[in-house]
Amino acid sequence: MNTRTFLVRWAIAGLLWICSASWAQELSIETSGQNGVITVSASATMRVQLSTAWSVITDYDHLAEFIPYMSSSRVVQRNGEQLLVEQAGAITFLFLQQPIEVRLAVTEWPQQRITARAVGGNLKKMNGSYTLEALPSGEVQLSYSASLLPDFAVPPVLGTLVVRNVLARQFTAMVDEIMRRDAQALR
């Protein structure tokens, strides 16, 4: 099997996993890359309690238990709604592994919004936000947007595709955990 065929199969398998993994009623994930900056915009509409969604996205000390490619996540400082969170993980593709370490300045607006920006680690730039909205239908919409610029070399096409796939899998895992915890709370 040549490299191109392998990459196409790998990309299709990743997309199938993303499409089938989440229980959300509506899931949308868009990623792009330009001049080394990778952006992601994602949203999911779920029939869950707003409090459950909030508790999952703010469960910083346990994110590594259900977010792919994340090996650790911990709050190192908290002052009200201002937090400092350290996260580590690695992106692995074939025989290559790129460690990711980031220190995030996080601001919370309880049950509404979280913003985060990199203040240390091996990302030159990272700005992201989660937003929760209770819809009139009784559903909750989770939106995520982020822009990141790694402080390490990312091969132009292949590397960007791998990072995009990682970001999509991580968002899908977040949605799946919200749905799982909400279903568990109803038992």
Explain how this protein is built.
The protein has about 190 residues and is of the alpha+beta class. It has a single domain (about 5-60, about 110-185), classed as 2-Layer Sandwich (Alpha-D-Glucose-1,6-Bisphosphate, Chain A, domain 4). It has 3 helices and 8 strands; from the N terminus they run αββαββββββα. The protein has helices at about 5-20, 50-55, 160-185, and strands at about 25-35, 35-45, 70-80, 80-95, 95-110, 115-120, 125-135, 140-150. An 8-stranded antiparallel sheet has the order 1-2-8-7-6-5-4-3, with helices on one face. Strand 5 (about 95-110) and strand 6 form a beta hairpin. Helix 1 (about 5-20) packs parallel to helix 3 and helix 2 packs across helix 3 (about 160-185). It starts with a helix and ends with a helix. About 25% of the residues are buried.
Secondary-structure map:
Elements: H1 3-21, E1 26-34, E2 37-46, H2 50-57, E3 70-79, E4 82-93, E5 96-109, E6 113-121, E7 123-134, E8 140-150, H3 158-186
Antiparallel strand pairs: 1-2, 2-8, 3-4, 4-5, 5-6, 6-7, 7-8
Beta content comes to over 45%
- CATH fold-level assignment: Alpha-D-Glucose-1,6-Bisphosphate, Chain A, domain 4
User: By helix and strand content, what is the structural category?
Assistant: alpha+beta
The total count of strands amounts to 8
Residue share in helix: 25-40%
Strand order across the largest sheet? 1-2-8-7-6-5-4-3
Give the C-alpha Rg.
17 Å
CATH architecture level-2 label: 2-Layer Sandwich
Kindly provide the name of the CATH class.
Alpha Beta
State the helix count.
3
| Outline type | globular
String of helices and strands: HEEHEEEEEEH
- First-last Cα distance: 48 Å
Domains, number = 1
Report the biggest beta sheet as strand number plus sense, adding barrel if it closes: 8 strands, antiparallel
Mean model confidence by pLDDT: 84
Identify low-pLDDT runs. 2-23
